[in-house]
Amino acid sequence: MISAEKIPNNVGLSSNKRLQRALEHWQPKYIQWWKDMGPQGFQDYHQVYVRTAVSVDPSGWAHFEYVKLPEYRWGIFLADPVHDRRIGFGDFFGEPVWQEVPGEFRNQLRRLIVTQGDTEPASVEQQRWLGQRCPSMYDLRNLFQVNVEEGRHLWAMVYLLHSYFGRDGRDEAEDLLARQSGNRDKPRILDAFNEPIENWLDFFMFTMFTDRDGKSQLLSLSESSLDPLSRTTRFMLTEEAHHMFVGETGIARIIERTCQLLQSAGFSEDVRKLGGIDLPTIQKFINLWFSLSLDLHGNEISTNAASYFGNGLKGRAQEEKFSDHHVAETYYELDVPNGDRLERKHIPMRSAMNEVLRDWYVGDCDAGVVRWNKIFERHGMSERLRLPDRKFNRGIGMFSSLHFDPQGAPLSDREWERRRNEWLPSPADREYLLSIMSRPVYEPGKFANYIAPPVRGVNRMPINFEYVRTEA
Ligand code: BYC
Q1: How far is ligand 1, taken at its centre, from the CA of residue 298, in Å?
Q2: What phi and psi values does residue 440 have, to the nearest 5 degrees?
Q3: What is the pLDDT of residues 189-221, one digit of tens each?
Q4: Whose CA is nearest to atom 45 of ligand 1?
């Protein structure tokens, strides 16, 4: 039986019979999915020190407890309503926001919510083997925190589907549990969510770059005229911040350790001989996950994006920072491939909305890389990491049929095939990473040789706290 106590919420679940009935049907399937496709080997005998959102106020955040993963209390939360909120962009600018789904935008809204919802369980599936290779108990706990929150984000989208899309919504909610990351017959919708995440460098890059796409997409959905979608995504953003923290600090700690190893060997050694992760490998994983996550912003020129904007369904990140919210007569300057040259074209701004969001995203990623590079400065080293050019390794959009090196210089198909392993992780790189991650580090306070400890523990607990307990 569905109860408000088991499902923390601020959506009036206890008095909403329709939602209760829909969830009663869906929740057992979700739990079965979680056991089958969630963290492998940690479902039955482990208790994890996790944060559970029990309310939207700041004190609701301080709620930490040991839980068995399948017993986590996945809740449903909307950020507080904004009094007299008005539509902030597009053709309906200035009108009151919608509390129900307008019939004419039903399909588009459903599509956006399903696409967003599909990424959440996908990421849990992608990460399900990582516990077996964890670099420490602290990191293991962070992995599970990210996983349970992605599960909660799925709940958030399912809440919208169940509450506002009737029968179709219930069918879509079932399908969200039926597609599977990497499955050839029923894959996840967006490509990056079908890529394997087999080692912790993948994981930290994913939480740095792909979760940051989550941030940019959620920011733009939080502008939506559909108020429940706006309020749901606004609350999700608070959790997303932690995921990016895990990614950014995870890579920072790997860089820190690599610098230490290099220094201890007087810069004379290959870091791999010392069991660390060399900088060229780190750079290759940046190249991979940044380019995959650029693809997640869709085509550069998109009629879908134009119509989402015009209809007020999906805005720009931080829409209030722009002065023109109609965007009916402005243009975006885009370099479009024409034969073997790029030609500057003026694209109606609404059709370039995916590119506008991508600009915001690239700036946010760049700031993170600048912070990583400070670690080299602190060690007095001249090495630097960088984002590849946005044309590099693209699978979606107008550059997807062409090849470019990380500096953006065009390459022939042959040259690309010959040199791609210089820029992207090779099978040998992956084999090396698996070799140093083959055994999990489960002892409190101990860390794998390739990563430095964090600056502080979780919730003011010591670094050597037992973040994951095993039952006898
Ligand atoms: N892979 O007009 P276009 C997160 C398809 S991450 C495969 O450009 P649009 C998270 C597209 O579906 C954030 N296919 O599309 C992070 C369309 O197909 P059809 C997730 C792709 O709609 C970490 C066709 O190409 N949220 O939260 O303008 C862990 C035409 O493309 C891809 C959202 O994505 C791709 N990458 O833009 C956990 C927000 N890109 O209809 C979670 C909701 C495009 O021709 N989604 N296609 O068969 C959207 O806003 C839009 O759907 C997109 C695509 C920006 C993704």
Answers
A1: 5
A2: -70, 150
A3: 999 999 999 999 999 999 999 999 999 999 999
A4: 304
pLDDT digits (tens, 9 = 90+) for 147-163: 999 999 999 999 999 99
Q: Between residues 341 and 363, which one has the greater pLDDT?
A: 363
* Lowest model confidence (mean pLDDT) among 55-69, 199-213, 447-461: 55-69
Angle at 286 between CA 284 and CA 288, to 5 degrees: 70
The protein residue whose alpha carbon is closest to atom 5 in ligand 1 is: 298
- Confirm or reject: Cβ of 190 under 6 Å from ligand 1: yes
Residue 437 clears pLDDT 80, i.e. is over it: yes
Cα gap 196→128, rounded to integer Å: 10
Atom 26, ligand 1: which residue's CA is nearest? 116
Q: CB under 8 Å, gap of 24 or more: what pairs does 64-68 form?
A: 64/458, 64/459, 66/469, 68/43, 68/44
* Pocket flag, ligand 1, residue 298 (CB < 6 Å): yes
Find the length of the chain: 472
Q: Tokens at residue 401, please? A: 């049929």
Question: Residue 220 burial (CB < 10 Å; 0-12/13-18/19+)?
Answer: buried
HSE value, Cβ hemisphere, 13 Å, CA-based, for 154: 29
**β-bridge mates for residue 249, sequence order:** none
Alpha carbon nearest to ligand 1 atom 4, residue: 214
* pLDDT tens string 24-61: 999 999 999 999 999 999 999 999 999 988 877 777 66
